[in-house]
Specification:
The chain is mainly alpha-helical. Helix content is 82%, strand content 0%. It has 12 helices and no strands. Helix 7 runs antiparallel to helix 10, helix 7 runs parallel beside helix 12 and helix 8 packs antiparallel against helix 9. GO terms for molecular function: ABC-type transporter activity. Pfam families: ABC2_membrane_2. This is ABC transporter permease subunit. Keywords: Membrane, Transmembrane, Transmembrane helix.
Length: 281
């Protein structure tokens, strides 16, 4: 299994998208740190109260992690959308599948290889954003809240990876990337719409649509639960997200929903293993 993880890293580094992702991530972190430092300096000059300073740091966390999830999704989509059909078209998959290993094991090995490096990237990005706000804007951090938020933030792109890999068994590389991007965008859009409903009240049809979207691709729901944990859970999260327009958080995914996401990923992996085992190479 270690061999496949190392091979996946070599494959990722050969792709231009890997270099582009690293450059974009570095630019984002530099600009974000610069913006946080300037804002923190302005607030210090204005001598705002500690409560207002805390609220501002939490708002920065909401915005920073919101754009960080874009980068993780970008990394997943462009690195894994051709993991099956792309390798099939260039003949690499046939050479790998010729080895004495079960097809389903090969599928899981490919998933694990990508999952390891996606998790490493997500952890580095998450820690960089949160630590920047902590050091420059004074965001208080509790180890338990930070670890729970980190695990959920890392779990979000792994859910997307599972969906992208399943789509790669059936769809050509470009079609799979477009389909996965649209589903991810729909889930993100639904989360933003739900944030706006805090001003308009609930609508039965809209609530059913948001629920269906969350079940179809629960990435945004997992992200919002991650944000909820980082901001201190029920004690503080509501203060930062009570009046942020589309970034508001009127509801928080429950523990039962998180268990659903585990079953969701397991079912998609099972379907992927089954489809890949029957796929004509």
């Amino acid at each position: 299994m270690t061999m496949y993880i190392a091979a996946t890293f070599k494959e990722l580094t050969r792709k231009r998208v890997f270099l582009v992702t690293i450059i974009l991530t570095f630019v984002f972190l530099v600009l974000f740190a610069f913006g946080v430092r300037e804002l923190a300096g302005t607030l210090e000059q204005n001598r705002v109260s500690p409560a207002e300073s805390l609220l501002n740091s939490m708002v920065l966390t909401v915005l920073g992690l919101f754009f960080a999830q874009f980068l993780t999704a970008f990394f997943v989509l462009f690195s894994a959308m051709g993991i099956v059909t792309g390798e099939q078209e260039n003949g690499l998959l046939l050479a790998v599948a010729a080895r004495p290993i079960s097809r389903w094991r090969l599928y899981l090995a490919k998933w694990l290889g990508h999952a390891v490096w996606i998790a490493v990237y997500s952890i580095i990005l998450f820690v960089s954003v949160v630590w920047t706000i902590h050091s420059l804007a004074g965001l208080p951090l509790l180890v338990g809240d930070l670890l729970r938020g980190l695990v959920l933030f890392t779990w979000m792109p792994l859910l997307l990876l599972t969906l992208v890999m399943l789509g790669s068994v059936y769809l050509p590389m470009l079609g799979n990337g477009i389909c996965a991007a649209l589903l991810y965008g729909l889930a993100l859009f639904s989360g933003l719409v739900e944030g706006i409903t805090i001003y308009e009240g609930s609508h039965p049809i809209l609530d059913k649509f948001l629920l269906l979207t969350g079940l179809l691709l629960p990435t945004d729901s997992v992200y919002r639960r991650s944000l909820y944990e980082v901001l201190g859970g029920a004690d503080w999260a509501g203060l930062a997200t009570a009046d942020m327009g589309p970034f508001s958080m009127p509801s928080v995914p429950s523990d039962a929903f998180l268990l659903y996401t585990v079953g969701y990923a397991a079912v998609l992996l099972l379907l992927g293993c089954r489809a890949f085992s029957r796929k004509d190479l």
